[in-house]
């Protein structure tokens, strides 16, 4: 009968209640006539407590006794809850004897003030011996014929305490011989073995998994199952990538690569014995036993994804050796790595430029200082003679590894990786790819690790969806309407357009709120009021940058000059911007150019379609004309929806003051209509168009006609202005009448031609494109080299909160499409 080897980790035996789950899982296996061997880790936290007790004892700190008491309580409580009947007495005696031996060992360490590697291995072995003794008793109490098996009897190793190497020839023989006459369920201690002289050793990181694999290979098991607290091997660390997916099947090679680069569900030594015998390894979840988990097998499994998973190694340093004469110095690389091996410094990744002028490799950060010292000593002649310029350690870096069998079969994987990192401003310090082409490894700044993980994960595993993280400042009429539009469209965007918009930050003048899981747009206002902290503009922007989220977009729904000062810093942090705020693009020309250069340098988006035409495509059309090689000769049009409505409605039946008040009620004007009527806003719009056309112009270069006299501006409140607005009725009635007599209409025109720019009220006849305007429409004409006789004309609603917020929304969607 084929055997199955099950291994349960510390989280699976963390509490008596979870051990009952384990007993149920094993019982079902036995009921299916499976010949099962079960390997156990120590109870959760016990190994760490044993190490703590040993360190206390070695330092002469009597608090080790308190730790012993805690360890005793955990195991005695487990016995009382799990073991019954005659087995209770036997199990209790065995555990008490083990605890007495533990106390004696720690007392010896306390007296000697020394915790040697040999003593530490012996100390740690008590965790597995205690847990397996109690669990064997629990199986028997459940009616299962079970027997405790101390793996030290069978797993023979060298004397490399802390990470002993297994003597497989002896071990395999002992295991096979032992199991020839065994009929009961064997409850095996994981993690530990012994030397030929029967000194206790431990098998290193992931030792209990390794034990299961050793037994499985020796017994030619049908399958090895590793039971843990996750649904198998995941596509990325779920603590860093919340949308990580379980991998149903993967090859041994993929598992080795993933485990080498930090995947903690399975460890490299576990895979090797199973690989030699081609025994499948399954990773299963104790707390979700019905889930299929991950199966690791010999052959590569075809997957619809281009990659299998992403892993990282933190706490590493990049050692860089550079020199123009390095290429001429024979055997330098060999000498470097020879000294690293001699000093037991593990080299994790190596990269060398084809020119030979530089070599870089990664080591653990804790070994970086020694690595530099040893290399400088080895190469002191080359350093003195100038063949090598420097040996440096770049700290605070991480190794980022993309793993998958399909990498060698699918084209464009590297391109997608570099594009995703580049879009998010993540710099790559070193690149390596093995000859198997199963792994692409990159060295990046540690601060960018989470951002890189999520960006790459979304690119390869969630590519059907375009996910962006949005920060919004300003919750006035435009911001509020934007949230309502997002709310109304959220399901459609997600299901039909595969667009996942997450509002992760909101701020106004009073409150600010962050939630990286996404703020519910149905209740954003309530959340901001109840859970938001006091608003601090500098802190808000610092948090945006420090959060370092992939695919980040900042939306400015204000007209504040304080906010535009932050734009350059955001762009240089690889954060895209959407803004209806015209003040950034109409500040000094030098700053305008800086913003443009930052967009190119940091590969981000700065979209401001709503700066000029609210929701109509004015700027994008102009940019397309310029990109096509056309030259803009003349710009002319009505650039204010407010003033368009005002002069389209003005006639003998509608007074100037009545129309302004009506426009204000309709939401076409600013809170203070004088901001529309003074012409400055239209001048800003014209300035933006002129600059986008490729001309240098400052705001003060534009001739501006103010429609309001000084008597209604200086020291006049908004309320008083509305009360006195009728004073202008006669003036504009006469202007309208004069134009009407000539068959003309009044239009507040913005115009640029031959280096001259103006915004002013003019009378135009029926031949002019703006003559037939209605309601609050804007109209813009571009006369160009290509469109000389018949200008390009763009017309549409130019005012209104819904139109403007709709334009902002459209820009957000455009950026999402750019990211993907």
Largest sheet: 8 strands, mixed
Which structural class do you get from the secondary structure elements? Answer: alpha/beta
Strand order of the largest sheet: 3-4-2-1-7-9-10-8
Percent helix: 40-55%
Any idea what the shape is? elongated
Beta strands, count:
29
Strand content: 15-25%
Low-confidence stretches: none
Count the DSSP helices: 29
Average pLDDT level: 92
Give Rg in angstroms: 36 Å
End-to-end CA span: 53 Å
Set down the secondary structure blueprint:
Layout: E1 3-8, H1 16-31, E2 35-40, H2 46-58, H3 64-82, H4 85-112, H5 117-141, E3 146-149, H6 168-179, E4 185-189, E5 192-194, E6 200-202, H7 207-218, E7 223-228, E8 249-251, H8 252-260, H9 268-277, E9 281-285, E10 294-297, E11 309-322, H10 332-342, E12 349-352, E13 358-364, H11 368-378, H12 380-385, E14 390-403, H13 413-423, E15 428-433, E16 439-445, H14 449-461, E17 466-473, H15 477-495, E18 499-507, E19 511-514, H16 524-531, E20 533-534, H17 537-547, E21 552-556, H18 561-564, H19 567-572, E22 576-578, H20 589-601, E23 606-607, H21 610-613, H22 618-627, E24 632-638, H23 641-649, H24 656-665, H25 674-677, H26 680-692, E25 702-704, H27 718-724, H28 729-741, E26 745-753, E27 756-764, E28 777-784, E29 792-797, H29 801-819
Parallel strand pairs: 1-2, 1-7, 2-4, 3-4, 7-9, 8-10, 17-18, 17-21, 21-22, 22-23, 25-27
Antiparallel strand pairs: 5-6, 9-10, 11-13, 11-14, 12-13, 14-16, 15-16, 18-19, 19-20, 24-26, 24-28, 26-27, 28-29
